[in-house]
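Letters spell out the chain; the tokens describe the backbone. To illustrate:

===
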Amino acid sequence: MKKSIERVQTGVRIEKRLLKVLKGLAEHLDITVGDLLEGVALHSFENKPPFSRNTLKKIEQLKAVYDLDLQASHSHKLNDTGEK
């Protein structure tokens, strides 16, 4: 059953390597980055894991390719280059 929604365009700043992993994952899943982010957010809001084991393996591969060493513990503790 499809649900009708209204989407809006937004300008979001995001860490460069994280975005590369998200784009790679979206491409792998054949969805848009927006659809991927919506799914992750909706799963998180219900405290449900958003990814299967196979998808988590793909994420690990993409993180290695793009040298993404950030973890959840880094959240809210990131500074842009040049910021103190």
Remarks:
- The helical segments are 16-29, 33-45, 53-65.
- The chain has three helices and no strands.
- Residues 42 and 65 are 27 Å apart (CA to CA).
- The mean pLDDT is 94.
